[in-house]
Every structure is written in C-alpha cells, then in structure tokens.
Amino acid sequence: MLNVIVTGGSRGLGLGICRKLVTAGYSVIAIARKKNDELDKAMQEAESARPRSFNFVPFDLADIDAIPDLVKGLRKEFGPIFGLVNNAGISFDGVLALMPPSQIEQLVRVNTLSPIILTKQVIRTMMSDGGGRIVNISSIIASTGYSGLSVYAATKASLIGFSRSLAREVGRVGITVNSVAPGFVSTDLTDGLKDEQRQQIERRSALRRLVEVEDVANAVEFLLSDKAKNITGTTLTVDAGNTA
User: Fold this and answer.
1) All residues at 6 or more sequence positions from 94 whose CB lies less than 8 Å from its CB, including other chains
2) Packing angle between helix 114-129 and helix 150-170, nearest 10 degrees?
3) What one-character DSSP code corresponds to residue 172?
4) d(CA 85, CA 43)
5) N or C, which end of the chain is more exposed by having fewer CB within 10 Å?
C-alpha cells in the first residue's frame, strides 16, 4: 500500500480526506495533536476492513523544530512516503487592525511555515524513493478575499505560490505538487448556521449549494492518483461555482 500523510486528519475535512484515501486503497497516516471519538471510530472501521490502513500519529505542527524527527520516525515506522496532504490549518476571525501580533504569528506559523518545513522534509525522502505527490489545501478566500480573514487569506494564498514554484523544482525527480481550493464546505460548523445565512451562501454559488467534504476529498484522491500524473503546479477549485 502507498503511504499518504494527511495533516489535521482528526476531524472535519482532514478526516474526510483520510476516509476517502483509505477507501481508495492507500495507507493513511493522520497527524493531529490528539485523537477524538470520531477519528477512533473511523480507524476501527478501517482496521476491520483492511488492517493497518489507517494510522494516527500525535504531533503539534506548531513545533517546527521537531518536524525533521517526525518525518524520520514516520519513514522508519511506515516505509516510503508516497503522498503528503497539507490540510492542517487554523483561523482567527477578526480585522487586522485589532489582531494581536501573537495571533498573526501563530497563523503564519501553522498555516504557512509548518507545511513548508514538513514538505521540505518529506520531499527529501520522495527524491530518494523516486517520486511522490504533494497536495496543499488552500481556499478560495486566497483569491476572492474575505473581510476579517486577511491574515488567513494571506497564508492560504502563500500555499498556492509555494505549490507552483515547488512543482518546477521537483518535477524533474517525479514529484507533483498541486493545490486544492475549497469553497464553503458543509460541515458540523455550517450545520449550525441560521437558515438565512446558509441560504445566502448557497445563492452565491452557481450550483446553489454548499460543497460537501467528500467533494474536496475526491479532488485530493484524484491528484494523488495515476490519472493526475501529468498535472502539477495547478490549483483545483472545488466551490460549487462560487467563483464562477
């Protein structure tokens, strides 16, 4: 089985990606700070169907200095790493003028610096193993903008630029690098919206609906697959036509 690391894999979109990749036949290594009931249940289901297809490694991705040892440990325990999905991210809602510098630094550290350093370490192993796939989860906010999320938007835009340039660096050694830019995804968070708020979001989209977690997971699975072997340095937008 091909090993794929998924950061932020304990809940929401990350867990949805993990589930999809396990079903597609990959061996998934979910990274998050801690386990939860939903992740534990998903892992038990995967274990019954296909032993050792869904693994969990606790790690705080804000601990930049420990990332090299993390990757060495993963390589030693699981073997060659075929794919990396940089999904983990945080967000603070607030206008820039009032945002504390500590929050700005934390956003950049977790959303930009951490995935860059993690990718650096992983591609070193991919180079020695003869290739691989990198998928960075960005957001349509990187291109559309959103009031109150300027720093978050900056971090997500940085992943797109990072992906494009890195694709040129590592393409010659058989590694593809792409981004996925989801729109407003239907999750437990959006289920808590008032009907009026949800309808307003849906009206903005050409398809008049929200994106499902599985839609984004399908895009990630495609970019990891052999069907996307000649796709690199691009951004796949999954937003139900919000930016159409």
Assistant:
1) 103, 148
2) 20
3) G
4) 18
5) C
Token pair of 156 as six digits: 């997500």
Write the CB contacts of 186 (distance below 8 Å, at least 6 apart in sequence): 210, 211, 212, 213
Tell me the pLDDT band of 193, cut-offs 50, 70 and 90.
low
pLDDT bin (cut points 50, 70, 90) of residue 73 is: very high
Q: What local confidence, expressed as pLDDT, does residue 184 receive?
A: 85
The answer to whether 175 touches 190, Cβ cutoff 8 Å, is no
Mean pLDDT, residues 203-222 taken together: 94
Q: List, for residues 173-183, the tens digit of each pLDDT value.
A: 999 999 999 99
How many CB atoms neighbour CB 128 within 10 A?
A: 10
146 in catalytic set: no
Torsion angle of the four alpha carbons 128, 133, 134, 135, in this order, in degrees rounded to the nearest 10:
-170
**Closest C-alpha to 88, from 171, 15, 23:** 15
Active-site pick, 26, 59, 82, 152: 152
How many angstroms separate the Cα of 151 from the Cα of each of 5, 93, 96, 142, 146? 26, 9, 7, 10, 10
Give this prediction's pTM: 0.95
Nearest to 241 by CA among 211, 200, 197, 199: 211
Burial tier of 96 (Cβ tally within 10 Å: 0-12, 13-18, 19+): exposed
Q: Which residue type, as a one-letter code, is found at position 170?
A: V
Q: How far is CA 203 from CA 35, 193, 198, 206, 218, in A?
A: 36, 15, 9, 8, 24
Task: Give the span between the Cα atoms of 65 and 60, in whole angstroms.
Answer: 11
